[in-house]
Design brief:
Elements: H1 2-9, H2 13-30, H3 34-38, H4 50-70, H5 75-97, H6 99-115, E1 127-130, H7 134-141, E2 146-152, H8 157-173, E3 178-184, H9 189-194, E4 208-213, E5 216-221, H10 237-243, H11 246-255
Parallel strand pairs: 1-3, 2-3
Antiparallel strand pairs: 2-4, 4-5
Helix pairs in contact: 2-5, 2-6, 4-5, 5-6
Length: 269
Amino acid sequence: MAFFDDVKQLILPYYLLSSLLSISFLVLKTISPMCNYLFPPSESQCELDMKQSEIMFFLLFVIVVRARKTGSVTMLAYLSTGFMYCKVASLILWFNADPRYGLVYVVLLTLQAILFPEPSYSGPEKVVYFNATSLDEELNRNKKVVWIVTFYTVWSPSCVNFASIYSKLSAEYSLDNLKFGKVDVGRFPELAKKYYVNDTSFSRQLPTVIVFKNGEEFDRRPAIDSKGQLQKFIFNEDNVKVQLDFNNLYNECKNNPIKEKKEKRVKSE
């Protein structure tokens, strides 16, 4: 069912336009008569030259490698990752061919981003967004509350792919004593440093999900072994549920609700 749901998404303007923009240079450079009008006469007028071919092969390699590292396990996740790198490569190729074409391409990318952004999860979520101080305050406010907190950045494809999954999980598992939060370590790098989350562009720790019990870290994914080595983790829904033991956490919290203190009412004389 998930596959057919993904197929239905492909007719949305974002995916159609992204497909066209991603292959624009390859199509217009190799198919006549467009190539005859857009590019100056040369031996490789309607075919890729050596440099352009190298960029295309490198692009293919990067897409495959990065998709594997980001844990893209659905068709739309692969496409989202692929579109980003294809657009960057196409931008380089257009500027290399003619700076004027590159500027036109930038305008088209900007218009698409404004008018037809990537579809995002629109279902319910129960997520608290923390700032530099509110996370520690909340962890210490009531230590009987179990917190599941995602450390993320807006520029990481892995974090973008995981965002909708995390929102769904929060709506499914949230209780008064089992809560979900998020921290943008791009905005609050001090929290990344405090909780040992590498927030650089080459980081393999984005996203990081940490479970807090009694105000302290109880578990995290991706985990770090006794030798300090980061263990690979694919952030799909099933993996997160199983590896972080969501069902047992939920049952434990549900069977031990927080007892509210009864306020005594003072009768006015």
